Amino acid sequence: MTAKDARARALAALAGLLADETRAACLLALLDQRAWTAGELARHAGVAASTLSEHLDKLVAGGLLAEERQGRHRYVRLAGAEVAQLVEDLAARIAPEAVHRPRTLREAGAASAMARGRTCYDHLAGRLGIVVTDALAARGLLRQDTGFALTDAGLAWFDALGIGLDRRSRRPLARACLDWTERRPHLAGAAGAALCRHAFDAGWCVRIGSGRAVRVTAAGERALAELLGIEAAALR
Amino acid sequence: MTAKDARARALAALAGLLADETRAACLLALLDQRAWTAGELARHAGVAASTLSEHLDKLVAGGLLAEERQGRHRYVRLAGAEVAQLVEDLAARIAPEAVHRPRTLREAGAASAMARGRTCYDHLAGRLGIVVTDALAARGLLRQDTGFALTDAGLAWFDALGIGLDRRSRRPLARACLDWTERRPHLAGAAGAALCRHAFDAGWCVRIGSGRAVRVTAAGERALAELLGIEAAALR
DNA sequence: CCCGTGCTTCGGCCGTCGCCGAAGTGCGCC
DNA sequence: GGCGCACTTCGGCGACGGCCGAAGCACGGG
Question: Do B20 and A12 lie within an 8 Å CB cutoff?
């Protein structure tokens, strides 16, 4: 009945949405920014379709997922960058010991590809994300020592590249996102998303398969070297 | 058995710690940065001492709380600023509709005092936090438009005030913390904590009662006006 | 037009978890 | 040294929630 109770109730309800292993697996899978069908998620999580249907109901009702019905398919994706950030933040906080050790060659290959470069919802992450972020900071385009913000030179750099940044949006331009594999922050926020989009549009990198892993192309290596002084060796 | 499963398990376990109303109420209460006894929390949450004892076991085991035994008392507090940030982040995300409407005069008074000024674990929040943050930004001491970072002038300002900032710590110097009541970011991180500590040490503000609410003193109004050009009217 | 497929609804099962009160432990105080 | 208080442990209860399979829709393709 007190103010605290209402807040506690709401907090517990929100956390409760994430507090189930199956739902957590769905949210983590959806971090790839794609829309999955209910069936795909059910197979991914290893539960019956009926079970997953109910989980999706809860996540949608809780505002974490957006859904789109197409024919007999139910497509579902994260409701937005804020939700992705929430999941990322929480996931980044789990103890490193809980991290999985690959057991097969195939797994090890996939894991190292993910560690080299991947997307983190809408921005670049993994080694690639860190290297780009550090290069931006080294060139005075990003202030990372006293917080996390683009400098005026940074704004000009984006402008010169023809990457438009919507500065009126409520979303912060630059935000630090803690990397799982590197345990260091990389560029997220509107600028991180715009840069990532540009990297794909300009052919700097391409997705490996259908997942979140990303590979830097030869053209990408040239562009990153020229624009940010990044050596190709740092990306491997 | 896959990597996703291990991550999902850990994520669900972490969220599960917050997914109970009683535990959530404890964590929210502990945001006042004080150490509470088990009995106080039990009374606060409205459950039996035995029930709360088990909740504390889980929160401590999960690393969210630190405990200290003194005689027959069990003092417990948040394990650190990161945990406070986690709880704050999650709490800030709950829909405004869930917020409580005060029903009595006493409640309304307490709520408005909290809205005017309070601490958010270790930094200033509420109207006070926003006004200070905006004033820092207006004077070019804090860059808020392209992210969230202190400027060189900002570093000099802290230095001139004799507020030491540990720049070697892993904790970010400046970080945005979203305010519940104002729905806008205010200064958190090492600089926010140092500024808050200084504000209390210098007598700029004092706690109202035993809670998180804070009142600006006459000396505080003078200091804020002189150092940051903040008008006293903005604080009311 | 009918069949197959993808999803949903329903009933029922089972495990987990929060809760309590009673009994037990340990500490401090008189 | 014994009483009282703060906390813990234990047993048991009840509720909730996740899970499944079966049956029921709804859409698209043949």
Answer: yes
